[in-house]
Amino acid sequence: MIRILTVDDHAVVRNGLKMLFEGRPETATFGEASNAQEAVRLVREQDWDVVVMDITLGDRSGIEVMKELKAIRPKLPVLILSMHSETQFARRAFKAGAAGYITKDSLPDELARAINRVARGGKYVSPTLAEMLVMGIDSGVDKEPHEGLSDREFEIMCLIASGKTVTEIAELLSRSVKTISTYRTRILEKMGMRTNAEITHYVIQNKLIE
Amino acid sequence: MKPGNNVAEVRAKLIRRAAWLVCVVIWLFPLGARAQADAGPKRVLVLYWYNKDYSWNVNFDRDFQAALRSAPAGPFEYYPEYLESDRFPGEHQSRLLHDHLRQKYADRRIDVVVATSDASLNFLLKYRADLFPQAPIVFTATQHPTTEQLAAGPGMTGLIILTAHRQTVDLALRLHPDTKRIFIVSGTLEHDKRLETLAREQLQGYESRVEIEYLTDLQPEELIAKTKALPERSLVLYVWQQSRNEQGRVLETREILASFAPSVRVPIYGMTNLYIGLGVVGGYINLAETTGARAGEIATQVANGARPSDIPVENAPLVPIFDWRELRRWGISEELLPPGSVVRFKVLSFWDQYRWRIIGVISLCLVEALLIFALLAQRARRSRAEEGLRLSEDKFSKAFHASPEPISIYRRQDGIILEVNERWTSVYGYTREEAVGHTALELKLVEPEVREKLRSLLEEQGSVREFEADFKTRRGEIRHVSLSAEQIVINNELCVIFLQHDITERKLAEEALRKSENLWRTIFNDAAIGIAIVNPEGRPVETNPAFQKILGYTKEELLHLWFVDFTHPDDTIKEFPLHQEMIEGKRDHYQMEKRYIRKDGQVRWVNLIASVIPAEQPGEFFGVGMVEDITERKQAEEQLKTSSVQLRALSESLRRAKEEEGIRIARELHDELGAALTSLKWSLLRLNKDYSGNGNPVSQPSAREKVEEMVGLVDTTINTVRRISSELRPGVLDDLGLISAIEWHAQQFQERTGIVCRFDSLIENDELSREQATTVFRIFQEAMTNMLRHAQATKVNIIIEEDEGEFVLEIRDNGRGITESERSGVHSLGLLGMRERAHSIGGKVEINGIAGKGTVLIVRLPIKGDTAI
Predict the structure, then answer these.
(1) If you measure CA to CA, which chain B residue comes closest to A61?
(2) pTM over the 0.80 mark
(3) Which among B647, B858, B653, B864 has a CA at the least distance from the CA of B772?
């Protein structure tokens, strides 16, 4: 039996979820919270296998509420059930500690599967979302290190390689020295390097500047 | 001597004697009875020593006789006799003279006997009883007789001739004060040194003052040698010396003096008249003349019966006598000589000799010259005066005719014009002939009352000055004239000369000036704008009513104010430098909107145009200020500004309201509708599942298809709701923040347009307010839309950074690049909107394009900064 806490400010959704499990082999008990306070109270008072919650809870962000819940029970898995199909939400949700992210337009079976997986301690990402996430985040293994740099980072790398100081670059790009320094740090990080000399060496070897 | 002369002399003598005898006879005849002794002439016998030609004797004789002649009681008979004991010495010779005199004067009674020297006196005393027993003796001698001798017989008195050693030495020492030694020269044939003895006696006491050395009885050669070598600062007193030369000849005292004096180099003083002229400077000298004269006086007194004992013996007068040449030689000024000194041998200069004649001649010449000069001067003056007169007349005539002003001459009596000048004729249009002989009234030159006024003025004052009147020309033109008149006498007639100064032009000019002045004054006074003329100190010396009205001060009050006094202090700070520059000539005007503070404290806004009035004299400064009251306009502007701000705020709030509305609707749509649709979908799917099979009507394939169709419809509806919702308000923005929202939008944009969007953020959380985030997002959306529409770009870089406390969003495309006109054109409302939005949150938008390279748009706003408004 799965103990499911549904957190959604819409009763329709909460009921819908219950209906989803009515004809299914696995049995489930449901707790319902329509706002953050109720959710927090219920999480405090009872044990749950999984929390299914919307990413928006009225005025409050579901992600924030999730963080609160995780603070109470760090191991409590949370599945975000969202109307939003945008990858930004999913990414944010995972960053904040969600175990799964599923959009509300998913098929009921899919939803049940996700709940089950998450409740058992697994992670869940819908296939379409997974694809989008991979496209956005992943840097291919075969790519050259500099291909992971943003255009601005690449530009600044080339300027560093050409012997310009951070101050000169700052002037050239109308940015503060601090900003350019930040860029430099990021470049070094992404390229796995430690010094400007290495950057220069790399740029020349790869014929990135003429 | 010629014989003729002799005869004539003798004859003259005879005639004189005859006359004398006649006189004596006439005189004697009536007095015949008188006693012989009383009645006869007094007889005076003088016994001279030495011969008759001896100069002393000659001089004595002359003055003695003169004394006799001038005596009141006369006449005297004078009998000179000579005792020549020098040349005829000895007792025998003395006896012979005695005998001769006895016999000679046997029948004549002598009244007075005079002895002129010691020798004479001794002879007389010796033979007195024999020769002149009744006659008193008057003597001149060096030895003072004894009292017995004086009282013996008929008595004796006389003069003592002193040897003037002391006086002469005193005199010499006074004239030669540095004298150290005195050499006294004397000598007698007898070598008895009696003169030295005498000198020693006389000069007792002098040894203390000077060293005295006696050169006595030296032979002439010896004397010359000695005296030649006398030391300086010494002098010689030559007393008297006789000596014999080798041939036995007696050298007289003068001869000896003359022999040594020329070689002596020191002054020589002597005490005898004989020596003067032989090289002595001078000395106190007994003069024969004066002694003779005095002796004569005494003799006449005695002869007339005075008792000799009643006449005391007295000293013979001494006279200081000098040789002028010697005085010169020794450099002795005549002024130093004692009073009454006699200077001999004075060489008179031409001037001395002819002084009066010269003065006379010169005076005469001067007088003559003066006369000549006076005459010349007079002639010159007269000719000058004549010339002056001629010139004056000439000048006057020329001045009269050439004068640029009309001049006329009238007869005082009847006002007839006697003369007019050319100018007059040209001004008044009458020829000279037409004018002369008529009166001004006849010619209608003046109104009668003007003429009367002039006449009375002349009557009272004798002249007229600067009298202004109107004169009428022949053609009837009125000339304004300033005239002066003066009375003069011409040919014994009293006339008046009129000098006119035509001031018509001046009058017209004055009139024009007055009109112009009035015009300007009217403009000044009636001007709607305030006008003030300020002096260099900034004091309004002249103000018009409008100016006064603006400030609420009267003209007089303003005179005592400075422009700073009624200028708002904040404006004074701005205006003062401008005013200063204007005074210093660095600018000629300035314009400013400023505030005046009225007398009642009210603030008025004015537009001031201050400018320099061109100086008539260098260094002079006046400024004119034109002041327009723009308070109403300012207020309107202020209101406009306020309303514009309000409008902006309104538009901002509208935008915000719209945004809020969008958020609300979006959320409603998204959440509520979305939830309902989701639920509906789920229900449909359930229905399909539950009722599939089992012969239910719903399980019919047609029914299942229908349900699936409905599910598809619900899906579509959900997507539509999502789209509409996110268009209204992207949920990402509210739930995930600006950075995620921009990233999301970029993705959407890329998907939708195919333009490659590269997003890169240096920060994860924007820390912006919701308001700011929304605004930036909307700007971003607008920018992306613009880019799509205009830029023709294929790639866009979106960079978010934090720079210097500012949030920076940079959108850099590779399109054609925005142009300058697009940036600032009137149609760039999109840009304007972006700027407005940025402004509302305290940020700004920069946009720059490089042709062919692309456009960069940068949004900057302070993080945690106050949102504007």
Answers:
(1) B735
(2) no
(3) B864
